[in-house]
């Protein structure tokens, strides 16, 4: 049996689709963290069969829109004094800014670098987003190529 100590104050990112946890771990730069981080891959789950879990023994700022793009079924638990004080159920964000970048060479964001890349949810089932300026359609997974 795997035993991981309780978190005093921190964050647990739970219900991550098996295999997707590494994207979150890397995006958050947790390999360089000066505090304790537990990364569990392929944990058994009653609801999901298999899942990944990340336990962070520290309070850090996290962009929940990015987590929602990676996996909208993620649950984030905020831990204080070894107890869950808040449970956040993520979803696909309706609007994202500077997470997905437009690749259309005719889009104004290609020539005017100061303009933010703004995308609106087009189809939640297919997880696609539409550029606010040129209507280019991008996948929710395209944010990984945005230079994060």
From TrEMBL:
InterPro entries: Asp_carbamoyltransf_reg_N, Asp_carbamoylTrfase_reg, Asp_carbamoyltrfase_reg_C, Asp_carbatrfase_reg_C_sf, Asp_carbatrfase_reg_N_sf. It holds the Pfam family PyrI. The keyword Transferase does not apply. Transmembrane segments: none annotated. Residues 95-138 form the Aspartate carbamoyltransferase regulatory subunit C-terminal domain. Residues 2-91 form the Aspartate carbamoyltransferase regulatory subunit N-terminal domain. GO terms for biological process: 'de novo' pyrimidine nucleobase biosynthetic process; pyrimidine nucleotide biosynthetic process. One of its GO terms (molecular function) is metal ion binding. This is PyrI. It comes from Leadbettera azotonutricia (strain ATCC BAA-888 / DSM 13862 / ZAS-9).
